[in-house]
């Protein structure tokens, strides 16, 4: 909330950056380390807000942590738990508190108390799949109303027992929560229809080093044996595929050329296919991927966001900005979240030609077919974007606004930069090094209340289509 970004666009991004470690892996790895009292050392740790939040939370739980932010090295050891109560201020900040249940069930006889995730400005975040799966393992979980909000109370005084769990939907968080609990459950747990995102595989690699026996089958089945002994772990966090995709799209849309050191081909297959389909250029080198503008970009693509190995939902917002520079109409069908197009109205104000639909505009009918949410859009390009004053409502929308500002020759002023800090390491530094005209300035105090009110109004206005929160 405290800083503003000033961006004057119209310049191609050129140069080289190093990709950070993955936010969606590192935050979960910290939680997973709570399963044991042994030291865990992580390398390639991103210096971002969500890691800082998780570090603070783990410290409150009892972890001793040494984090060399510059070197990207973090050591954590949790010899004993000080508390199993997740303070209210962490709820709603990100998806981490709910994962504390899975990690701590096998570590403490105390109640694990997690205040509700929902109830904040940006809409509901269901955790039904998490709760059902943990209950299937024998956890006793109930929701109790407290003074202001409610909280989940969870315990497994009799221990957990392995079970066969069929997820109705391959939720990333529910899969992670179940895996974390299952490593401490007696016998074998089988998760069917599990999510198999690269960050989950990274979590599994970490758990195997920690002492777990886990199998991932080709048909979305994860098999977990009880972990009976733990070891010290050294683990290098995988690259952030969302950061890679974000800079890739910024490079191509500005007609630039950017080499992203550390970008991993295997994580990016669905993304690279779409980049090639619209005429964007890329070259996979031995230590990263170069992205570049090759020829006139052409629209006419159809993108359906999906669980891995499909086209990731976090890529669609910046891809829509990329498509403002492509000739022709394209269709995006969001099938993972029902409410992830809230950002489109700001892009329209900046000059994008976007139309929203409640129908499934795609090859398949998705879970939201009979609902009234706008979850498909048609974007027509090319269009000229103009600078604007923008309030960021969430992380991925935030980057798409930055991209739009990089395309507009006039100055844009972007507030709520803290959302970007949560997931993008040194955004201003990296974009400046690529030649962007971007400066970060403290938000004058007199504008603070105005910015808060503006965000509140924006979310209220979009209450039918709220932006997804900080995923
Ligand atoms: C994670 C990622 C996020 C990514 C998403 C999908 C992190 C911190 N965030 O979020 O960047 O966009 O995966 O790849 O890793 N759902 C339920 N009930 C539940 C849980 C989820 O209905 O109990 C629904 C959600 O509302 C959503 C869909 O399932 O519509 C996907 O959610 P999920 O896969 O759980 O995403 P997250 O783990 O929250």
How does this model look, in words?
This protein has 471 residues and is α+β, with helices and mostly antiparallel strands. The chain has two domains: 3-19 and 241-462, UDP-n-acetylglucosamine1-carboxyvinyl-transferase, Chain; 23-226, Enolpyruvate transferase domain (UDP-n-acetylglucosamine1-carboxyvinyl-transferase, Chain), CATH 3.65.10. Helix content is 31%, strand content 23%. It has 14 helices and 23 strands. It has helices at residues 23-33, 49-61, 96-105, 128-136, 172-182, 198-210, 241-253, 269-277, 316-323, 344-349, 395-407, 418-423, 427-433, 445-461; strands spanning 3-8, 14-18, 40-43, 64-68, 73-77, 112-115, 140-145, 150-155, 164-166, 188-192, 213-216, 222-225, 233-236, 257-261, 281-285, 288-292, 302-304, 328-333, 353-357, 376-381, 389-391, 411-415, 437-442. It has a four-stranded mixed sheet with strand order 21-22-1-23, with helices on both faces. It has a four-stranded mixed sheet with strand order 2-14-16-15. Strands 4-5-3-13 form a four-stranded mixed sheet. Helix 11 links the parallel strand 21 (389-391) and strand 22. Helix 1 (23-33) packs parallel to helix 2, helix 1 packs parallel to helix 3 and helix 1 (23-33) packs parallel to helix 6 (198-210). It is globular and about 65 Å long. Residues 24, 95, 126-130, 169, 171-174, 195, 197, 312-314, 336-337, 471 line the site of uridine-diphosphate-N-acetylglucosamine.
